[in-house]
């Protein structure tokens, strides 16, 4: 799953557990594992010219940011008003990634890449001092995974849930106010 799936489904699963002013942290948390791990992996690939298992510890795009240890450490260190929604966002990300692995194992036609699963990243280092090895030979091949059924369905569902939540006012401060509401709040339209 990529951006819309993680944001839409993640916020749908967890938005009711945080206050409106914390939703930005929830959304950031829903993307944070990929914001950390994808650039890290591809930067190491570019710098070393190696990929996958040849890299040592950073063997794919699900490494440090995809660990429960990372999520818990942030929750402990960061004040709760920020740490809790951040943790919830990361948790939804990890659940959705693991769901993709499980569905890929159960229904290979979905086109997701099965073992080694995300669970070895989530539970790192409990299952050993290694992360899942990237099944992709290049960043371009990784981007082509946008075509598999699970990713397309996740992105479509995520987009629909984001739109529905936005229209329902779930995002509070992120919600667009109609012109009448703007005028009632004291802002005046510009003079012609």
Structure description:
There is one protein chain. This protein is mostly helical and 192 residues long. It has one domain (3-174). It is built from 8 helices and no strands. It has helices spanning 3-14, 23-48, 68-77, 80-106, 119-122, 139-144, 149-167, 179-184. Helix 1 (3-14) packs across helix 7 (149-167). The mean pLDDT is 86.
Largest sheet: none
Q: Uncertain spans, ≥5 residues at pLDDT below 50?
A: none
- Cα-to-Cα separation, first versus last residue: 47 Å
Radius of gyration, whole Å: 19 Å
Q: How many discrete structural domains? A: 1
What's the tally of helices? Answer: 8
Strand content: under 5%
Shape: globular
Mean pLDDT: 86
* Count of strand segments: 0
How would you sum up this structure in a few lines?
By secondary structure, this protein is an all-alpha fold. The protein is built from 8 helices and no strands.
């Amino acid at each position: 799953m990529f951006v819309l799936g993680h944001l839409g489904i993640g916020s749908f699963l967890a938005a009711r557990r945080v206050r409106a002013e914390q939703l930005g942290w929830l959304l950031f948390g829903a993307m944070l594992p990929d914001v950390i791990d994808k650039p890290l992996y591809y930067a190491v690939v570019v710098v070393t010219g190696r990929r996958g298992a040849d890299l040592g510890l950073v063997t794919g795009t699900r490494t440090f940011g995809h660990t429960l240890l990372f999520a818990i450490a942030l929750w402990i260190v960061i004040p709760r008003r920020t740490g809790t929604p951040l943790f919830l966002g990361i948790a939804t990300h990890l659940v959705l990634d693991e769901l993709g692995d499980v569905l890929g194992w159960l229904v290979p036609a979905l086109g997701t890449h099965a073992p080694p699963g995300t669970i070895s990243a989530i539970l790192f280092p409990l299952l050993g001092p290694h992360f899942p090895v990237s099944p992709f030979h290049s960043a371009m091949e990784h981007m082509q995974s946008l075509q598999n059924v699970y990713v397309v369905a996740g992105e479509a569902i995520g987009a629909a849930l984001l739109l529905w939540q936005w229209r329902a006012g779930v995002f509070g401060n992120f919600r667009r106010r109609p012109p009448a509401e703007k005028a009632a709040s004291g802002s005046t339209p510009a003079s012609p």
